[in-house]
Every structure is written in C-alpha cells, then in structure tokens.
Amino acid sequence: MKNENNAICEVIPLCKAGLHDEDITRVASCLRSGWITSGPICREFETAFAGYKGIAPEQVLAVSSCTAALHLALLGAGVGAGDEVITTALTFSATVHEIIHVGATPVLADIDSVSWNIDPESICSVITPKTKAILVVHYAGRPCAMDRIMEIARAHDLKVIEDCAHAIETRFHGQAAGTFGDFAAFSFYASKNLTTAEGGMLVGKDPSAVRRLRIASLHGMDRDAWARGNDDKFSYLVVSDGFKYNLSDVHAAIGVGQIARIEENLAAREAIWRSYMEAFSDLPLGLPAPLDGNGDRHARHIFTMRVEDGGGQRRALMRHLQGAGVSSSIHYPPIPAHPYFQDRLGIRARDFPVSFDYGQKTVTIPLYPTMDHGEIARVIDSVRSFFGG
Ligand SMILES: Cc1ncc(COP(=O)(O)O)c(C=O)c1O
C-alpha cells in the first residue's frame, strides 16, 4: 500500500497479538516435551488466571473458546428446553447461539444509549415466568451496571452469566468482571486483550459446579489423559454428558506469558485510547462515554465510535480509512439485524431502536498495545482528514 508521497506503508490492522520471544520459547518447549494436549501448562495458566481475578483455581476451567465456556455456563446454570434467557441485542452471534444450543429461547433486551451495554430497565420489561437467566456482555470492555442487574436477578430468582469476551481487566465498583454472576465466560481469541490464538476460560462461583463442568468439557470422563498417565488408576469412566472443549497445553503456553503482561498491555491500550479521545473531541463523532467512577474500570478492548449519519457516512469513512491503509470494522451488526435470528426469534431490527441505531453508525478503529506513535498518528490523521480536520 502507498501513501500520498508514493512511499510504501503497511496496512495498520485492527488488532495484533503481542507475542514476545519468551512466549515462543514457552510454546517451543511444550512442543519439545512431547505432551501437547491438556496437562500441566493448562493448570499453570488456570492458576495464573484465577490469581489475576482474585478467585480460587478451583473456580476456573480453561477451554477451547469463549463459545464453549458459554455453552458450559448455560448448562451449569441449569438452562434448558422451555427456558428463556435474556441477553443484549448488541453482541457477537455466539452469545445468542449458545442459548439456542441448550434448547432455550433467547429474549433480547435493548442497550442503553450511553454505555452501549444492556439496559437494566429493558431487562425488566421482558421478564416472564419462563425467564431462567440473564446473560450480560461487558461490551467493548465497559462494565455493565452489575449492581442493578444483580438486584433484578435476586428479585426474580434468576441466574446470571457474564460474557466477559471483552472484559478480562474490567471492574465494576472495584469488583472484577466475571465474579458477579453464577458463571462467566472469557475469550482468548486472536483479537482479544489476552490471546492463546484460540481459547477461553469458564469461571464459576461454585467450585463443585466447575468440577462437574470440567468433566463435561472432556467427554464426560472422570479423569483426563494427563491424570491417567500420572496416577495409579489408569482407567476412566464416563460419568456425565460430554463435549470436546479442553484447551491444549500448546495454547495455554501462549497464555501464561500474556496473563503476566496483562496490566502492562492495558496501560498501553489506555494511552492510545486517551490519544484518540483527545484527537477526536472536536469531530462530529459519538465517542465512548466516560466511566461513572466508583472503582469502575474499562478493559479498552475495542475503540468504537459513532458517526452521525449511518447511511452513507459510515461507509464513506470506512472507505476513506481503507484508502489510507487503516483497517476498520463494525462491532456489531446487532443480533436483530441478522436474517437467522430474525427468522428464528421472530424479531425485526427496528424492534430494538437503540441497538439498531448504534449498529448502523458504529465504526471500530485499530487498537493494540504494540501500536507505535507513527501508527497512532496515522489512524488519527486518517479519521480527522475524513472530516476535513
Ligand atoms: C461478546 C463475545 N462473546 C463471545 C465471543 C466468542 O468468543 P470465542 O471466539 O472465543 O468463542 C466473542 C468473540 O469475539 C465475543 O466478542
């Protein structure tokens, strides 16, 4: 790609995994060890993750994706056929697919126009006698209003599951995201603040529920292959329904270094975030709202902003950025905009006006800890030049 001076310049990606030599060494040593599926490195990663979240290692389970963790969380919460689960209209499809996969019906609630998170009052308006759980998403890394959501859940005897795909470092009123609900699901997909290439983590309040789900995550076997090779019992029995959701040690080996650097990376994300907020403050853009304070913390996972006119303006901006070698994306086309969910749930995009409006206007620009000053300046200049600034 060439810039206006005809010099070659690299396209700035939306996200980039920040891998260090020590990560590569750790992966190489796992490969050389000959034990490459779930084993001691998964346990090491789980312990480090639990330590970071301030919970017991017995409360976490490393799995192959956040999608897998969501499935297990819904099963763990006892959600099944005939139940309804309330979730946000603004999320990635996996959040809603997993509700369908356990036989339940997803019931969407609209978002709040300031936080872009699920609106607690909208939750209240769709509770029915069939509602079993609320599945919240800390969108972009901003905490949901967990005080109000937990209050609603208690009043109606509902389970709470937190989709923390964007929210590893997130806190609400000083408490870590993923520790409010009965279960939480984290993503370590390639674009996430902590990546294992593919991977996820299930967190549960009750260690005995996590123990049961650990068994379910690997074919329902009472002992995994590492345990069978390292004690004197040698065999296994299938004691529950089972899936193939375990994380391999090769993937976990990437995660061990990443979890150690998570705060350092967040500081880098915060600095870029501040640069964007300052640089765009005079542009006709809806920028992320400041946090409410009181110990709230944003994980700065994706920098999303809203143009004024969702029709041609967003497309024109994205084209302009593409021309300048700056990647951009849309997080997300809202759930009610997808044909599958429209047919399956009998909904229309305009039934959820706040998500509909946001989904038409939002644009995500690059944000990753290793962005250098030149890249940050190029993103800023490209956005500003679109508005003639
Ligand atoms: C909000 C949300 N939930 C769930 C997922 C699924 O994560 P994974 O790819 O780890 O299954 C994603 C992935 O981007 C996501 O953004």
List keywords for this structure.
binds pyridoxal-5'-phosphate, Aspartate Aminotransferase, domain 1, globular, 3-stranded antiparallel β-sheet, 7-stranded mixed β-sheet, Aspartate Aminotransferase, domain 2, 389 residues, 2 domains, 14 helices, alpha/beta, single chain
What are the SSEs and their pairings?
Blueprint: H1 21-33, H2 40-53, E1 60-63, H3 66-76, E2 84-88, H4 93-101, E3 105-109, H5 120-126, E4 131-137, H6 146-156, E5 159-163, E6 171-172, E7 175-176, E8 183-187, E9 200-204, H7 207-216, H8 225-229, H9 249-260, H10 262-279, E10 285-286, E11 303-307, H11 312-323, H12 339-345, H13 353-361, E12 362-365, H14 373-386
Bound molecules: pyridoxal-5'-phosphate.
Pyridoxal-5'-phosphate binds at residues 65-67, 91-92, 94-95, 137, 163, 165-166, 187, 189, 200.
